[in-house]
Each structure stands twice: as structure tokens, then as C-alpha cells.
Design brief:
BPSL0761-like, 4 helices, elongated, single chain
Length: 94
């Protein structure tokens, strides 16, 4: 069974992975564009925080932990989380 902090961590890591893919110039441009497109609609740290707080009491909730609980040492993150302020340029290429 997946715990709320594990579910939150997976969302944050997946968002970060999309950012990494979109910015990796070693990858084909069509893959980088797909990652940038998905990242535009993927939950950010702020979205996950809001969801964790607003649906905590719901019977139908997916039970998310706050990002602070899932990753308490933000300074130790080895990735750049997807945030509202994250700006991904549209990958150029052939």
C-alpha cells in the first residue's frame, strides 16, 4: 500500500523528471517537447500542497502528504521541483 508521503514524493519527483527531460539537449527534440507539454499540465509543488491541505478530510481523497512532510529537508533535494515559477522554453531543433 502506498503511503501519502510516498505518493507525494512520487508526484514531486515525476514533475522534476519532466523538467530534466525538457531541458536535456542530448535528447531528441520531440521527446523534450513532449516533456515540456506534459509539465505544463502536471501538478506543481504548490498544487500538491493545496491538494494535500484541501482534501485531507475527504472520504474520496487520494491522501497526499504536504511536500514538507514528504521531503522534509528541501535543501537536500537533488532535483529541481516543478513549481508555478518554473519556466520551460519550447525546445528548438530540426
Amino acid at each position: 500500500m502506498t503511503m501519502p508521503d510516498e505518493r507525494t514524493r512520487a508526484l514531486l519527483w515525476a514533475g522534476s523528471f519532466l523538467v530534466d527531460i525538457a531541458r536535456d539537449e542530448a535528447l531528441p527534440v520531440y521527446i523534450r517537447r513532449r516533456a515540456a507539454t506534459i509539465a505544463r499540465h502536471f501538478p506543481t509543488v504548490e498544487d500538491v500542497t493545496w491538494l494535500a491541505e484541501s482534501i485531507r478530510e475527504s472520504v474520496l481523497s487520494i491522501q497526499l502528504a504536504s511536500p514538507d512532510q514528504a521531503l522534509p529537508e528541501q535543501s537536500d533535494w537533488d532535483f529541481e521541483p516543478l513549481r508555478h515559477s518554473t519556466r520551460l522554453s519550447w525546445p528548438d531543433g530540426p
